[in-house]
Design goal:
The protein is built from three helices and ten strands. The protein is of the alpha+beta class. The chain folds into two domains: 29 residues; 133 residues, Immunoglobulin-like. Strands 2, 4, 5, 8, 9 and 10 form a six-stranded mixed beta sheet that branches. Strands 1-3-7-6 form a four-stranded antiparallel beta sheet, with no helix packed on it. A hairpin with a 4-residue loop joins β4 and β5. It is elongated, with a radius of gyration of 21 Å. The termini are far apart. InterPro entries: Ceramidase_alk, NCDase_C_sf, NEUT/ALK_ceramidase_C. This is Inactive neutral ceramidase B isoform X3. It comes from Equus przewalskii.
């Protein structure tokens, strides 16, 4: 019993020592996990098929810790709002996470699971047409006795229409 208490004292000392913090920080990070049967970026709460200007389009994805994206700069934004241009048959980015009209919310769950909710406050200046929301992120994966790796993912919502009336 005494040896066990001594061991616990040493562990407590390591955990509270500021000099050991850089050594323990990688060990204390929780790996990101998607729920069973889901992958990162899967849509959990879909968009409505149609919105009017002035309304809020909201979609929720299976997410990962946004700090992972800060450590790995594959993507330079967490989200984009894209409009389909029929003349060029391409999706054009009209907003990203730096836009006043967008919001990105990360909801930390249990055991490394989390969700990302994206809201687009559709401005009065939005042109009618087909839109979609794209989520870009990174998740931390670690196999037993292996160093952690950060992997990128991206996902796209279903297409929805924006109308003026």
């Amino acid at each position: 019993m005494r040896q066990h208490l001594q061991f616990m004292d040493h562990i407590l000392c390591l955990l509270t020592s500021s000099s050991s913090e850089p050594l323990l920080r990688p060990l204390l990070r929780i790996m990101d996990r998607a729920p069973t049967g889901k992958t990162f970026g899967d849509v959990l709460q879909p968009l409505e098929p149609k919105y009017r200007v002035g309304e809020v389009a909201e979609v929720t994805f299976v997410g990962a810790n946004p700090k992972n994206s800060a450590e790995n700069r594959t993507h330079h934004t967490f989200l984009t709002v894209e409009k389909y241009e029929a003349t060029s048959q391409t999706w054009q980015i009209v907003h990203n996470d730096a836009s006043w009209e967008t919001r990105f919310y990360w909801h930390k769950g249990l055991l490394g699971q989390s969700n990302a909710t994206i809201r687009w406050h559709i401005p009065e200046t939005a042109q009618p047409g087909s839109y979609r929301i794209r989520y870009l992120g990174h998740y931390r994966k670690q196999d037993f006795l292996r160093p952690a790796v950060i992997l990128s993912f991206e996902s796209t919502s279903s297409t929805f229409e924006v109308v003026t009336t």
